[in-house]
Automatic annotation (TrEMBL):
InterPro entries: Elong-fact-P_C, NA-bd_OB-fold, Rib_uL2_dom2, Transl_elong_fac_P/YeiP, Transl_elong_KOW-like, Transl_elong_P/YeiP_cen, Transl_elong_P/YeiP_CS, Transl_elongation_fac_P. Residues 130-185 form the Elongation factor P C-terminal domain. Pathway: Protein biosynthesis; polypeptide chain elongation. Coiled coil: none annotated. NCBIfam families: efp (TIGR00038), PRK00529.1 (NF001810). This is Elongation factor P. Involved in peptide bond synthesis. Stimulates efficient translation and peptide-bond synthesis on native or reconstituted 70S ribosomes in vitro. Probably functions indirectly by altering the affinity of the ribosome for aminoacyl-tRNA, thus increasing their reactivity as acceptors for peptidyl transferase. It comes from Pinibacter soli. The keyword Transmembrane helix does not apply. Keywords: Cytoplasm, Elongation factor, Protein biosynthesis. It holds the Pfam family EFP. GO terms for molecular function: translation elongation factor activity. The keyword Nucleus does not apply.
Length: 188
């Protein structure tokens, strides 16, 4: 059995019948009382974020998670459809389980997290940084480069990203999928 000393960032635990991922954790020690362990938890199978405190040494129930490579196929009424790169088996996942659905493009490789107890998909993670083509952007004003001014640009997935003035329509840019921010221009 696992106890509170096994808590780490990213660990998925079962708590009150739901699954939660550990976002942040720490320990509070006082001179008289026993140590307490606290954690900020984000719901995996629900949209809740909670804080939980245990006495040091209490039992926790971690869930074993497996990460598999899948490829994004298309979106329809059943949700986002992905194909296993090894078995070619297809699964449909709800939009709230995808970490950045606005950046998904056809053929995009993603990591799908599975609960090994139930074999159910828990979440879909895009790579940290992906390359997208700018499909629409206002032209920048020449000479307006003294400040780090940003302008909105639409990328091939339909999402809007703020980019520097020198980025033009048709160019490839690298985008951080966690923050949705422009990282750099990509040379072909």
């Amino acid at each position: 059995m696992a106890n509170t000393s096994d808590i780490s960032r990213g660990l998925i635990i079962k708590l009150d019948g739901s699954l939660y991922s550990v976002v942040e954790f720490g320990e509070n020690k006082t001179a008289r009382a026993a140590a307490k362990v606290w954690a900020k938890l984000k719901g995996v199978d629900n949209n809740r974020s909670i804080e939980k405190t245990w006495n040091s040494g209490d039992t926790i129930y971690p869930v074993r998670v497996e990460k598999k490579a899948f490829q994004f196929l298309y979106k329809d009424d059943s949700g986002y459809n992905f194909m296993d790169n090894e078995t070619f088996e297809q699964i449909a996942v709800a939009e709230n389980m995808v970490d950045a659905p606005q950046f998904l493009k056809d053929g995009q490789e993603v990591a799908v997290m599975f609960n090994t107890e139930t074999e159910q998909p828990m979440s879909v993670e895009l790579p940290d940084k992906i390359v997208l083509q700018v499909t629409y952007s206002e032209p920048g004003v020449k000479g307006d480069t003294a400040t780090r001014t940003l302008k909105p640009a639409t990328v091939e997935t339909g999402a809007t990203v703020n980019v520097p003035l020198f980025v033009n329509e048709g160019e490839l840019i690298r985008v951080n999928t966690k923050t949705g921010e422009y990282v750099e221009r990509v040379k072909e």
